[in-house]
Design goal:
A hairpin with a 2-residue loop joins strand 2 (240-244) and strand 3 (247-252). The protein is mainly alpha-helical. It has helices spanning 9-37, 44-63, 65-77, 83-100, 103-126, 130-151, 156-164, 170-194, 209-223, 260-277, 294-308, 312-325, 334-337, 355-373, 382-394, 420-440, 443-448, 453-462, 472-480, 487-501, and strands spanning 230-234, 240-244, 247-252. The protein is built from 20 helices and 3 strands. Strands 1-3-2 form a 3-stranded mixed beta sheet, with helices on both faces. Helix 1 runs antiparallel to helix 2 (44-63), helix 5 (103-126) runs antiparallel to helix 6 and helix 9 packs parallel to helix 10. It folds into 2 domains: 9-152, no CATH class; 171-501, Neurolysin, domain 3, CATH 1.10.1370. The protein binds zinc ion (ZN). Zinc ion binds next to helix 10 and helix 11.
Length: 511
């Protein structure tokens, strides 16, 4: 798909207006990055005010009559399937979402978000959900109103989900999650029943922070991250932010007694960054210059973190660098380390969960937020419903609310519909990795030689270079030859469980 060679005045006007919106987004991203990495502690309130002003300016850009006129003119001129038609479709989607939600509701949501975050923090500290119950009920009611305003007569939850995963709906996700739970819960049980425990001491010891960051830097550069178009800094929670295509920043954190969180954190953010750095240059500051969806974004981080970073080939390449960085610690080879990178252990905290149990954590949240939205669950009963589901899916339950329903920030800030994108990302990562392995062959041998170019090239061509004009589902289907499903992900987990825990196949129903 190519941009118009001689843009009409309406098209030029559309890009002019949209580039102002993009520049505000870039300023916002930079302000947020600064807030998380180096803002003086006393400056936080003022930064909040600055960000609120930028958000208001962005909103004004989107709802301006000029932009809507330019879009209407371009819509008339756009030929079906052209890049202009995609630009109009993507821009219109943003504009319509902005126009449909009344200003009053937006302000109420912003206020409920601040109140919700403060109440959530206090409740978490006190390990007492009752302190968060009313602010959460308020946020839920407001988001339901927002969803209803956007959806017209449709499902309000789907309208919120659509913000993160365009084209997705709860009716499509429910069977997917049910299927996944039906397969994963028995797999987790089978691993527990195997009686095998993995010796993780191999990954533990003393690993000075500078060494860990240096190793992470080396890995990021080797897989293709362009340090001339980005940076790596410390922050409390690792993230990746795109200011624009030539400025994609990542952050890390480390713990000195285990090298895994820092290294895999950096590889994860590198996956996000490779996607952003690989978006087509020609679409800079236009509506399609963005990721297709959060699920697709997450698939890129998880592909590099898990399907590359936890592979034997990758470690055959990295072990000599590891030994050079930590001469006292590294006595293992790739095969000895491998089981410690594929453990399965039910736990209470989502962000610490392994690849197998992680989606059970997400399934709990998806089912509960859906029940809340559809009026089948009262906010008051959330802790009880949470514990019940954890017992059912993972065989364990929280002893207090902080390790249960209060652990995530998402609902406090009103991000309903966000959780499912993590699972969609995991499924897509496995399906893309399997397709790339099939198409390219010998990937492990290439990784062992430090050659990650073929895989990156494959992703650039099929995914990164396609930008946002194609719906997420279509992108995965075109890249892998079939629509997104659970098969490759489940096969990957089962292979690992068989190798690490000698769990006999097939453990649970076939996908
Ligand atoms: Zn991520």
């Amino acid at each position: 798909m190519r941009a118009s060679e001689s843009p009409t005045p309406a098209e030029r006007r559309l890009y002019e207006l949209w580039s102002e919106y993009c520049d505000l987004e870039a300023a916002e991203a930079l302000l947020e990055w600064d807030q998380e990495t180096c803002l003086p502690s006393r400056a936080h309130d003022t930064r909040g005010e600055v960000l609120a002003t930028v958000a208001a300016l962005k909103h004004r850009c989107l709802i301006s009559c000029e932009l809507r006129d330019a879009l209407a003119a371009c819509a008339v001129q756009a030929e079906a399937g052209s890049v202009l038609a995609a630009q109009v479709r993507v821009a219109r989607r943003e504009v319509e979402r902005a126009v449909k939600v009344p200003e009053r509701l937006k302000r109420e949501i912003a206020a409920a978000r601040s109140a919700g975050l403060a109440a959530w923090q206090a409740a978490r500290q006190a390990r007492d959900f009752s302190l968060f119950e009313r602010p959460l009920a308020r946020m839920l009611a407001l988001r339901r109103d927002e969803g209803a305003a956007i959806a017209g007569g449709g499902d309000p939850y789907d309208a919120l989900l659509d913000r993160y995963e365009p084209g997705s709906c709860s009716a499509g996700l429910e069977p997917l999650f049910r299927r996944l739970v039906d397969i994963l819960a028995p797999l987790v049980e089978a691993v527990a029943a195997s009686g095998v425990t993995v010796d993780e001491s191999i990954a533990r010891g003393h690993f000075p922070g500078e060494g860990q960051v240096e190793l992470g830097r080396r890995a990021a550069a080797a897989v293709g991250y362009d340090f001339e178009a980005g940076r790596l800094d410390a922050s409390a929670h690792p993230f990746c932010v795109r200011v624009h295509r030539r400025d994609v920043r990542m952050t890390y954190r480390f713990q000195e007694d285990d090298f895994r969180p820092c290294l895999f954190g950096i590889l994860h953010e590198t996956g996000h960054a490779l996607y952003e750095q690989g978006l087509p240059e020609a679409w800079h500051r236009t509506p399609v210059d963005d990721a297709a969806s959060l699920g697709i974004h997450e698939s890129q981080s998880l592909l590099w973190e898990n399907h590359v970073g936890r592979s034997r080939g990758f470690w055959r390449w990295l072990v000599p660098h590891f030994r050079e960085t930590f001469p006292a610690a590294a006595t293992f080879d790739a095969d000895e380390l491998w089981p410690a990178l594929h453990t399965v252990q039910p736990s209470l905290i989502r962000v610490d969960a392994d690849e197998t149990t992680y989606n059970l954590h997400v399934a709990v949240r998806f089912e509960l937020e859906l029940a809340l939205f559809h009026g089948e669950l009262d906010v008051r009963d959330l802790p009880r419903a949470w514990s019940e589901r954890y017992q059912r899916y993972l065989g364990i339950g929280p002893t207090h609310d902080a390790e249960g329903v209060l652990q995530d920030i998402h609902w406090a800030q009103g991000s309903f519909g966000y959780f499912p994108t993590y699972t969609l990302g995991m499924l897509a990562a496995a399906q893309l990795a399997a397709a790339a392995r099939r198409d390219l062959g010998g990937l492990d041998a290439a990784f062992a030689d430090g050659d990650f170019g073929p895989l990156l090239g494959w992703l650039r061509e099929r995914l990164h270079g396609q930008g946002r004009p194609h719906p997420a589902g279509e992108l995965t289907a075109r890249a892998t030859g079939r629509p997104l499903d659970v098969a490759d992900f489940v096969a990957y987990l089962r292979r690992n469980a068989e190798a690490v825990y000698a769990v006999a196949p097939p453990c649970g129903p076939t996908p």
